[in-house]
Amino acid sequence: MQTINNTEVNDSMDHFPTLVELPVVLHSLNLNGANGCNREKQERCQIHAKNDYEAIQCWLNEYRHKATTYRTYQKEAERLLLWAIYQSKKPLSGLDRDDFEAYLSFLDSPEPRNVWCTRSHGGGRKRGEPGWRPFVSGLSFSAKQVAISCIDSLLNYLVDARYLAFNPLSLMRKRNLSRFSRPRSILLQERMLELEEWYAMLDTLEELPEKEYSHKKEKERLRFLINILYFLGLRNAELTTHTWSSFRKIDNDWWFYVIGKGDKEGIIPVCDDMLRAIIHYRTFLKKSPFPNQNETEPLITSLVNNEPITPRQINKILKKLAHETAKKFEGNAEKITKLKKFSAHWLRHLSASMQDRAGIKFKHIRANHRHESDETTRRYVHAIDKERHHDMQKLKLKMT
Hints:
Blueprint lengths: L21 H7 L23 H10 L5 H22 L8 H10 L6 H4 L24 H20 L13 H4 L6 H7 L4 H13 L5 H20 L3 H5 L6 E4 L2 E7 L5 E5 L2 H13 L26 H16 L6 H7 L5 H13 L4 H8 L4 H5 L4 H10 L8
Antiparallel strand pairs: 1-2, 2-3
Helix pairs in contact: 3-6, 9-13, 10-12, 10-15, 13-14, 15-16
């Protein structure tokens, strides 16, 4: 096994430093960034950080109360730091514009693959265990967008804190930066289920076995999971951080009270079909039919206890259903590939699109999904496109 104080990346490398080991490794390699060429003068620094690792920890600490965001930011910062050590051989605060361009290209296909990528899609390796790798494979377009956003957030924070002199990413023209991710409209189309695919998924759900109680329990949880994500259009992380008390009855109408992205509060109307799904699932769980404001149990729990499950576990559950659904499209490589990319967030896209198809007003779709702008909502609704296409039929080569 290669020792961690050797920065040469080769096929024999079997151990990346753990988070605890990183400060020692960075110091021993003289790569801790104490004297990085992009450092602002230490006396101007507004955070208690004398090196890159401490600066990253200050940034992460800003998100300590947002578990999902913290984990995502930590993962991307760690990947970048490891790349800087082993590939670029520079401290984070010594990376320039060209280094970041090289890193974004590296994310497409981390090489050497057997060094940077896990050998068997995780293989049970946990952080710190021999054989753990920072990547499973090259990042998808959407995953790369997340990585770019996280890195940009880190660099902007460090510039604002007077730890770094400038943000090298800002030197990359938007046109050049866009090479590393697809246009949002194209990404959205790729993540939008067609009716045939959606109905096939619902059929697959109903066909799941339920003779054994354990199977029935798993199926009922999945059915409720599909219903709540579809009817309420929740983000995956929102679902895992709310309890039954989020459902409230006001003037005979049921609402779901949510604290979402950016800690913004919102309320989502609960339609009759969603209410029936609530009653059905709660009855199965041997609870009272309707939730009350004193219930602090998570909405989606582990099958073995009442502990909440993570967004990653929810994605895993839904991906399993999508993979089963893909079997219904044997011979259709395009649909199979698409369904194998499915994630929980696709149901949020589908929710907005289907609300539009159902004739729900645009302003209500925007409010239901708590979009910051009309432009965001327009990505999901297509009724106006139908109208625009119909109007175009009036145009003729020879107008009378």
